[in-house]
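Case study.
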Amino acid sequence: MEKKKLLIVEDDLVLQNSLEEFLLAEGFDVVCAIDGEEGIQKAFSEKPDLILLDIVLPRKDGYEVLREIKENQETTHVPIVLLTNLGSIADVEKALELGATTYLVKADYRLDEVTQKIKVILNRK
Amino acid sequence: MLGHKLKKRLADEFDLVKQAEDLGVSVWQTPSFLFIVMGFVILVAMTGVYFISNNYDSPDVLVISESAVVAILFTIGNFIINSFNQVAKANKMKTEFVSIASHQLKTPIAEMNWQIELLLSKFPEGLSEKQQLLIGQIERSSQKMARLVNDLLDVARIDQGRLALTKEAVDLCDVVSDAIANQQPFSTIAGIELKSACPVKSPKILIDKKRIGVALDNLISNAIKYTNKQGVVEVFLEVKNDLVQVRVRDNGVGIPSNEQCDIFKKFFRSNNSMKNNTDGTGLGLYIAKNIIEQSGGKLWFQSIEGAGSEFLFSLPIIKA
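After joint prediction, the assembly is written out as follows.
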């Protein structure tokens, strides 16, 4: 089976690195971006199968990135999983309204749970 | 019994120093003090009006004295409202502080948890058994810290009315098995038998799986904490008409009857025989009740001191 490509947009390097290594070991192809601008750029150039997106990011926040990716014909179909530590009703609603597939709170999810979610979403496609 | 309760209530009502400390305002700003002053002013005013209307036959004097009384009452009323505002504002600031601090703590906790998980699950080669054991203990401590921070954050969110539930169709049986798996290590350490039973076919319900899991974790963890060695904690799932009901029953120390009305209060911890043997924040039941009620369910309990407790909650089944 062809390797699925994931894009991680996360400015915390420790989190980005742990997630990247774990997903690589799980057999995914992984690319990373450190801020919102780079995230949008890589969403177009790398054509990922799924995007993991932080909300609090330098140079364009996650909502902005989400909006731009969903508004563009080329990338609108790519499922986006928001990874964040926010978690109030307003944040969840805003993210889902903008077209995010789902929403995970980083400190509450183990890496294998995140991976499980990703697999479920990719299989559904 | 009743007389004693009433006496205690009255003593609390008039212990102005304690009230001022509790509310974080000065003594003369406490509601009780202001009400006493108001009562006193009303008495003086009534006597004054009686005296004036007896001795002066002029409506002008009466009008002026009445106006003075109204002005005084108005000023005191204003003080009362201000002190309430101050208390409310201080409370809000405290909640916001807890919320911000917990958010900031969540990132390093997530970093720690993910790195440990990565190390143990993907790169364990070369680690001796002892090293793996120690890292496993670090992992558990870090998860404990994550739970504490989550509890504080949940309480802040509940108080601000901003607790978010991400609902999905879930088989509650899975939540029960997860919670049992989470609590099994603790029950083993405590020497308590942990049993569960689910019906063969359990319907799907629309809930936030993580949060209902937290609520159930809290109930089972309490049952384990307040049960002596060789006790039994049982978790049953039953389907009743259009409800799913979960029962967490133990044969532990039970809840003293005079504390039963307080147990869902924030930071409340029972004063029973196990108090010094168990750690806890007094937030578990408060959070569980709020999560379950916000999910459209109900949480209640029955308990006999010395015989055990049973906590029950029900959640509505969604019609497909």
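Observations recorded in class. Chain B has a mean pLDDT of 84. Strands of chain B lie at 168-171, 193-197, 204-207, 232-240, 243-250, 298-304, 308-316. We will return to this complex in the next lecture.
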